[in-house]
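Homework help board

Subject: predicted structure for assignment chain

Our instructor gave us this sequence and asked us to write out the predicted structure in token form, then describe one feature. I got the tokens but I'm not sure how to describe them. Can anyone check?
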Amino acid sequence: MSGLNKGVGKAEVTLKWDPSPMGTPPHDLDLVAGVYTADAPYGPPDYLVHFDSRSPDGTITLHRDSRTGQGFGYDEAMTLELTRLAPRYARVVVGVAIQQGGGRLTFGQVAHTGVLVREGYTDLLEDDFAAVADATAATVAEFTRDGVEGWTLRPLSVGFDTDPRDFGAQMGARRA
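My token output:
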């Protein structure tokens, strides 16, 4: 993982992977964002954005959702308009979950995975999931509200062995 930035206002998170081999179930990876309040930054998320959805206030939108990885370059995209989030929100965690419909599938079994976080034309973070190759879901980035700098991005490469439904509840937990 590389990148670190202060004062992020609007970020785009994109995800790529190669399609599954012919004759096998499609690989379906999904971007997930959990939004946490200042009162409970490590509790359950106040809401999740995933699976072709958007936040209730329109500040986080998943606007490209691929179910196969087919396409050129990055196939899924999520926009986070952090400066528009209500002051009660202090933390946003972004992760990726692999759908498990065709049996247990890990990042190491999916060819050419990658996630990219950008602000405008500036790459803030890039990861290939090599550090979490045995995981079925992983967090990739954490945005936290800093009163002086606005929103701060921190790489957050943590692997999980869980299904997409449970991942949403676990992804923002405090890590030792």
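Reply (TA_rk): Your tokens look well-formed. For the description, you could write something like this. The first helix runs from residue 164 to 170. That's the kind of observation they're looking for.
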